[in-house]
Amino acid sequence: MKNLILLFISVFLYTNIYSQNIDLINPSKNIGIKKWSIVNDDVMGGISNSSILINNEKNLIFKGYLSLENNGGFASSRLDIRQDNLKGVKFFKIKLKGDGKIYKLRLRQQNMRASYSCDFKSKKNEWLIVTLPVENFKPTWRGYSYSNYPALNLDKINSLSLHISDKQEGRFNLEIEYIVAVK
User: pTM here?
Assistant: First the structure.
């Protein structure tokens, strides 16, 4: 037990002393609040909708309605992050309050068809911090996974997006205090 406690303390200290955080979204610092675009299933005939806004608490809100009509079923908001150097990032950390639904953080590389996606689950009306290791991001395109796709190159990421799909029809609401990349 003593060795386990020492290991935990060592990892905690190492992570806090030697890791470098890169703020990708932090509205209280005016980071990640501009250059958002909406990409919903209406590009394929669906009728889902979404929006991005900043609330009075200076948190980012991704909300809308996911519809399965007309072969729809996804809503997303995309942020241009071309200026950030993500080389060496080990994981992404998100502080969020949600509605109990499953969302995706997606990373898109320049000149690549697929994006790299990692799921995270929210808890209804409860704040939590989720950690998404880089190795958990898998290449996907239009709902299909690719096993023989080039590995994620963090040096070439030009956007990140918040995404909801997987037949979770109905209203959705995700509040984000921050998203940081941790080296």
Answer: 0.86
Provide the pairing of β-strand 60-66 with 49-54: antiparallel
Report the CATH number that the domain containing residue 39 is assigned in CATH: 2.60.120.430
Residue 174 lies in a domain: yes
Q: What's the structural domain count of the chain? A: 1
The amino acid occupying position 51 is S
pLDDT tens per residue across span 33-91:
998 999 999 988 999 999 999 999 999 999 999 999 998 999 999 999 875 678 899 99
